[in-house]
């Protein structure tokens, strides 16, 4: 039995086995799969919309090479073991890479493809486990499902009632159950678990409780909002700094002169060590520039400090960090009920050894890895979600910001 078999045991709850298909179905009705499903929907739609798109072999190979680096599968033996464990072949990897490269090749037409050539839900769900496996998210999703069920409050509703409160159309839920091999009787139990977690989550995230949490950690949660430009080399970075710092040009004009785009990011003080320029950002004032700081591949980062905001629940990054802390504490307290692969994985705090990503057990989302932005959506297949593609400034603004086609993201706390 491979990692992609729906029938394999993902985790046990009080000794009751839960299959991978059941865990994925629960994640589906909970809404935790919204971003991965949208990412896959775009990829499959582009495949249907433009099957003959001019995607070069070099572009596909570039995606494969970047994927292997990201997943730490550069050694031939490691790649072979990964494919065997998931019941995949090299042709499956090339198909995944072609889908990713096609979305990048279509650019802004990818949105049109998603509207006009969207795949049927059954096709989408059938392809989802494989896509999650290649993205490195499958085990994280299963571990998150285990955590939600372990911490769920009791619910006394039938399947229809639970789905109604979850705001999931019954027809969609039943189609998903059929695609993932979930028995309707088990679906009712799973839906109650997901609803029980949603209710428990609402109790834990009452504003008064979050304010109390904030009061204990206010100094660590000061927010730094910056616009970050990635320069191809040191010379371009120094020229950008010279124009904006010494020649009196505005940041926007300097970006335009250098033909660069700036990506808006928000860093919390407690996570400044993860920023390329974090050692300087903590003492920088709004309007100042920090950098250049070295990035992988010889690139340089230069950041313009837009705002320093005191810790407040009105700041999205602060609220997200507090919520994650509260929910992680709750799920950690419930893990004694869990067993099996995903249950044991959820109990291991910190980075996943296969992906380097930090799990988001309470939400089902996968947080960005330590090297990435504090806040910002983005899911580039050549580097995962670590380089967000949120609001762009400069001549490249409005472009996709790179080959990424996904909508995932996370908040680093």
Key words describing this protein structure:
413 residues, alpha+beta, Chitinase A, domain 3, 3-stranded antiparallel β-sheet, 17 helices, 8 strands, 50% helix
Helical content, roughly?
Answer: 40-55%
Low-pLDDT runs: 347-413
Oligomeric state of the chains? single chain
Number of domains: 2
Main sheet specs: 5 strands, antiparallel
Secondary-structure-derived class:
alpha+beta
| Average pLDDT metric | 76
How many distinct helices?
Answer: 17
Determine the N-to-C terminus distance: 37 Å
In one word, what is the shape? Answer: globular
In spatial order, strands of the major sheet run: 5-6-3-4-8
Task: Give the percentage of residues in beta strands.
Answer: 5-15%
- Topology pattern, helix = H, strand = E: EEHHHHHHHHHHHHEHHEHEEHEHE
Radius of gyration: 22 Å
Number of E-state strands: 8
Quick overview:
The chain has 413 residues and is α+β, with helices and mostly antiparallel strands. Helix content is 50%, strand content 11%. The chain has two domains: 9-204, no CATH class; 219-312 and 379-413, Roll (Chitinase A, domain 3), CATH 3.10.50.
